[in-house]
Design a protein that fits this description.
Blueprint lengths: L5 E4 L5 H5 L4 E3 L13 E7 L2 E7 L5 E7 L6 H14 L1 H4 L5 E6 L8 E6 L2 E6 L8 H11 L4 E4 L8 E5 L7 E4 L2 E4 L15 H7 L7 E5 L5 H8 L4 E6 L2 H13 L8 E4 L2 H11 L3 E6 L11 H16 L2 E11 L6 H15 L1 E9 L18 E9 L2
Parallel strand pairs: 1-3, 8-9, 13-14, 13-16, 14-15, 16-17
Antiparallel strand pairs: 2-5, 3-4, 4-5, 6-7, 7-8, 9-10, 11-12, 17-19, 18-19
Helix pairs in contact: 2-4, 5-6, 9-10
């Protein structure tokens, strides 16, 4: 098979990055684009470097590299799934039954994610080139764990499809650090829930006892649930999606937290913060967990400006001595750039920010040192203080 593989010769300048393990070859780095279908195994060479990957006929990422030695087969894929399972042992030892089992490039399976919701595994393939690996992955999941269903969710948000077993019930409930959530695997964002903020949600809770809390971009209420569970006096939740706000209300009721004690608002987060600042409304804790502001490098500067503006608005709603908990899931914005955006927002608001918590992703979203693109999440809790 390897003797007949197409060989792509890459510019020598790519050798340092690829030899360290970076798994992507961009289309503009391929001198002569071959005519072959997505999902074809190819060998890439660069100086003395050589590796095997899957060709994508349309993506900006032309090749996703899988192995330095052999064309992956079903056993090779099963080994990657097993290694990923072992790496999540610490997650399983905690109080959760929903987490990311396979995190694409970080677990040696570029372009593929597997999320586990109790006894249901959801596969998401983010590139046409990796679709052919899905049956092997499904078989490895089924062989490794006693599951009730293995599902495939298209990356474009299409209809959930059963690969094995049965579809999950519409009222499927999962647990995270003592908090219960309805998991909508059919219509929810990502594969149903956002697992990456699990530990950050837990970290916010103790700061909220007896406090008035504003949770912007609340989605299904993750941060707000932890705040209310730890005794927040009142939580105001805001999201632009009415379905998300409704789901948050249901999750409050599911956890025995009376929704009428709190306030649920369907509105854009930027608009709400502007309105509250104009009205002089202040909170002890303001939480910001917005969607990504940049999908590519061209949008990086616009994303930085958006983070400055958003956090500046939020600072106008935090009482002196209160807390701002701010997140960024934009991979194009580095941790350093995000901290600079917070500093600029503080300067414009005439405030000092004292960081008390600075974190990223949990262990089920590991980051290889050679692939910084996997490190997308930033989460900073800061004490908001007046200027000296």
């Amino acid at each position: 098979m390897e003797k007949r593989m197409v060989v792509l010769e890459l510019p020598p300048s790519l050798k340092p990055r690829l030899s360290k393990g970076h798994p992507w070859v961009y289309r503009n780095h391929v001198r002569e684009l071959p005519e072959m279908p997505s999902g074809t195994w190819v060998r890439v060479t660069c100086g003395g470097f050589s590796a095997i990957g899957l060709w994508d006929a349309d993506s900006a990422i032309a090749v996703r590299i899988f192995s330095r030695h052999h064309v992956p087969d079903q056993t090779w894929v099963a080994d990657r799934v097993r290694e990923a399972w072992k790496l999540r042992a610490a997650v399983r030892a905690g109080a959760t039954n929903a987490y990311r089992w396979v995190y694409g490039e970080s677990d040696g399976l570029p372009g593929i994610v597997v999320d586990l919701y109790d006894r249901y595994a959801v596969i998401v393939a983010y590139a046409e080139s990796v679709q052919g690996l899905v049956p092997w992955i499904a078989e490895a999941l089924h062989a490794h764990v006693d599951l009730q269903g293995i599902l495939l969710r298209p990356a474009d948000g299409g209809r959930l499809r059963s690969l094995w077993g049965r579809l999950p019930p519409p009222d499927l409930v999962v647990e995270e650090h003592g908090i219960l959530y309805y998991a909508d695997l059919e219509a929810g964002q990502k594969s149903g829930l956002y697992f990456d903020q699990r530990e950050n949600r837990l970290a916010v809770g103790p700061w909220c006892q007896g406090k008035r809390v504003l949770d912007c971009f609340c989605y299904v209420g993750g941060f707000a649930l932890h705040a209310a569970h730890r005794g927040a006096q009142q939580v105001i939740l805001c999201d632009a999606a009415a379905a998300a706000v409704e789901a948050a209300q249901k999750n409050f009721a599911l956890n025995g937290l009376e929704p009428t004690r709190h306030e649920f608002i369907t509105q854009d987060g930027f608009e709400l913060l502007g309105d509250f600042a104009a009205e002089g409304r202040k909170f002890d804790v303001v939480i910001l967990d917005p969607p990504s502001f940049a999908r590519d490098r061209k949008s990086r500067r616009a994303a930085e400006r958006a983070y400055v503006r958003l956090n500046h608005l939020a600072l106008g709603c935090v009482r002196p001595g209160g807390l701002l908990a701010s997140a960024s899931c934009t991979s194009q914005v580095s941790p350093e750039m995000f901290r600079e955006a917070l500093a600029e927002a503080a300067r414009r608001a005439n405030r000092r920010l004292i960081t008390v918590h600075d974190a990223g992703q949990p262990v089920d979203h590991p980051v290889p040192v050679h692939f910084h693109e996997a490190r997308y999440l930033k989460f900073v809790i800061s004490r908001v203080m007046p200027l000296l």
